[in-house]
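Self-study notes.
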Amino acid sequence: MATAFDLAFDPWDPAFLADPYPAYAELRAKGRVHYFEPTNQWLVPHHADVSALLRDRRLGRTYQHRFTHEEFGRSAPPGEHEPFHTLNDHGMLDLEPPDHTRIRRLVSKAFTPRTVERLKPYVRGLADELASALVESGGGDLLTDVAEPLPVAVIAEMLGIPESDRAPLRPWSADICGMYELNPSEETAAKAVRASVEFSDYLRELIAARRKEPGDDLISGLIEAHDEGDRLTEQEMISTAVLLLNAGHEATVNSTVNGWYALFRNEPQLAALRADPTLVPTAVEELMRYDTPLQLFERWVLDDIDIAGTTIPRGAEIALLFGSANHDPTVFEHPSHLDLTRTDNPHISFSAGIHYCIGAPLARIELAASMGALLEKAPTLRLTADPDRKPNFVIRGLEGLSVAV
């Protein structure tokens, strides 16, 4: 069995980061699982395996509901990283049942389909404003002028964060999310810890204010959410709010810029979309598949598991390659071809199983609103310079996207 390091998989190589999909094809052709020594992970590249393992309870986002660090053969995180881990480990994305089940049930009482539906006019109005401002300026950076402001403002509006307090949200989120990359540096960890402390302190004050004066916002809803006498702890509310911001806007921001960059490189598809804006819903799904914003999702092996005759032992870590799964030719016809009319599109960009993205409906609304507004108000939108890729692998995005109208 070839290891991933013997193949073309190199998540620190700029050439790989620019286009990882040929390396994924090689991984799929060489087998169903590959050990990658630099990160001590087992890479899983096939759609069927990724989809199945996302639902397999022998794997977990954490192991601490069953084992101590020592029992699992792992070292505890450094003490100086504690604020980040306290914040991260109380969010439902990194919990397993029964804690995950309880928190998701309570959060779902506040973050309802009705909550999301009520935001639609705000999302559409803001998307129109941002697109109009871009047109009035004759162009700009699609990342900073449209892609970033929209989801950050929407999540902040939903949470009830005043406009005057929103400036630090994006930097806090970016610093925290740096810890989700492979082998983060101590500098990255220090930034994440500082952001975790500052963001948590801010939310603690906001929660205290909402306890005194509840509003029509998600923070107030999380305070009120209860089930048979059970309520969220303050830390669970803080971690939930941060998770909704981080996961909610990182995927939308990167889907927006990755998507438009793909469209600019596929002129016939862009022309078809401009000619028929009713393609927007399938275009959103296809663009999320075509250049996936979250390339990798990790799972701990809680009980020995067999993949294609290879036993992955308890204590190991599996890296599920979403980007590769979304280009698997056994599932997607001509996967390297961008097809905005693709209707048979079981991409896994929002994950699957119990950790399926709770904010997926809101992300789809934001992406459709943004795309629709730009198609309407900037029908001749064009790329003015080739963008640089962010030097990240797990969260895939661009440094910017310069456009003119």
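Second protein, same conventions, sequence then structure:
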Amino acid sequence: MSAPPTLPACSILLLAGGRGQRMGGADKGLLEWRGQPLIAHLHAVARPLTDDLIISCNRNADRYRAYADRLVQDDDESFPGPLAGIRAGLAAARHDHVLVLPCDGPLIDRELLDQLRSRAAQRPDLPVMVRQAGQWQPLFCILPKALGASLELAWQRGERSPREALLALGATAVECAADDPRLANLNTLERLHGASKSS
């Protein structure tokens, strides 16, 4: 199915605010892969799609600033998880939709991002998430900014899972195969180094 000629304008939020526990405490977005920081690979794909590129980071702001129009950070210094970054990004976004990507997914491509945006154009009131062989991937998603208040209410009630929060809001899926390489998650040093060797 071809994409509609006009896809919704969107802000793009790159999530780089984690503690990096599986990376020995390193700031994941700044770890080098194929000669560049991980965040640079996401920036290269995202930059042409938006005039509002936001990075959620809780440290190293000076280094991240080169890759974003604006930076946001969690309102809690305890690293409460990616839903906190999504809340901050939605509140700051200038467009009606926010495309969310994790900093440790550098193989994402334009085709998949356009699929997410196309699905959002069909159902502009609902979150859209990647679903990989039946498993939701909530950090690859596009959200209506208008859902910010509903997400905030869920947060105040104690919800911390992006997956559960978005499913409760009626999320719809973009389907991907189990072995889709674009969704490779380089969230450990072993995976990062293994992917570098296979390049």
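Instructor comment on the second fold: The first strand starts at residue 10 and ends at 16.
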